[in-house]
Amino acid sequence: MDQQTQTELEAAAFRTLLAHLDKRKDAQNIDMMNLAGFCRNCLSKWYMAAAHERDVPMDYDQAREHIYGMPYAEWKEKYQLEATPEQLAAFANSHK
């Protein structure tokens, strides 16, 4: 497979991941961190880092808006639930 095709396939897979996460707003970031070790904020940081590697100006808020599909504050207000004591304990345990 040539590099251009690989890049296009990876980009398509990433867009599909973002669409999936958009449909699964019930999947809370803390749950994703506890189960997979990354969340939407991590994706935002990776997206921003990739932009910076290519000298594309982007700040964290812009990156999060791309990943969340809306400004982060709006997403947080609409969809983010308060973490339960169990979720917080699992997070603390997995990040020792």
Counting DSSP H or I runs of 4 or more residues, the number of helices is 6
Q: What separation lies between the terminal Cα atoms?
A: 41 Å
**Low confidence ranges:** none
- Mean pLDDT over the full residue set: 96
Radius of gyration: 15 Å
What profile does the largest beta sheet have?
A: none
SSE pattern, N- to C-terminal: HHHHHH
At the first level of CATH, the class is Mainly Alpha
- The coarse silhouette is globular
Report the structural category: mainly alpha
Strand count = 0
**What percentage of residues falls in helices of 4 or more residues?**
over 70%
Question: What are the SSEs and their pairings?
Answer:
Blueprint: H1 3-23, H2 29-36, H3 40-53, H4 60-68, H5 72-79, H6 85-94
Description:
The protein has 96 residues and is an all-alpha fold. 73% of the residues lie in helices and 0% in strands. The protein is built from 6 helices and no strands. The longest helix has 21 residues, at 3-23. The mean pLDDT is 96.
Please outline what is shown here:
73% of the residues lie in helices and 0% in strands.
Features:
0% strand; 96 residues
